[in-house]
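Troubleshooting log. The previous structure file for this entry was overwritten by mistake, so regenerating from the original sequence record. Sequence copied from the archived sheet and checked twice against the printout by T.R.
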Amino acid sequence: MQFKKLAFLLLFLGFSSTAMAQMEIGIQFSPTIAGTRFIAEDRHGFEKSSNTLRVGVGVIGDYFFSNNYAFSSGLMYRSKGSKIKYNFTSESPDGTPTTIQAEDDLTVQYLEIPVTLKLFTNEVAPDVVLYFQVGGSLGTKVSGQVNNQKVINGEKTAKRFNVFETSAILGTGAEMQLGQSTKLFGGVTYLRGLSNIDNFYSDRLGDKNIALKNNGVSIDVGIKF
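Regenerated output below.
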């Protein structure tokens, strides 16, 4: 019995050390040019007023199941949203309908779990490889603001945003080996929101077919060890 326990322990330790040898943990910083796209009829006049610089930061992990392929995940904090314009109808004091153009600055913070596949090339220069990344992410809302306000008319603005968001991820970049277990990396990632983030405009404009989705392009820099 003692021999079996010892053999099991050695097997477990061997598996753990192999798994750790295949795992690379890192810290990533991702400033993002964030935007918003719309699914809405032209009569509502939705348009992006401007892109907005947002921030992203988190921990990533690459698990290599072969020399050139890795499953990549982690935990990222990302800020998303941009300035948008839209039209709504209001009644003047004499009861005449009037079309008004409004502008909102939307800011939503998410905690995201990316689920992606990374393909690494062989060395393209001494200690340098390229990578290509594809997959998706699931985010959960942390907080939200509208026009830099957390409360409007006595109600928290964060409540208007949906709790969960799904996104597609497509990226590329390069890694440089600095030492036996340290790597620097940098790249570009396109983030395309797949789910509606806000039901406020559907309710206000009386059109259930309106949807707002996040878009963004991030510059990713970080270190793995």
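The chain has one domain: 23-224. Archived copy saved in two places this time.
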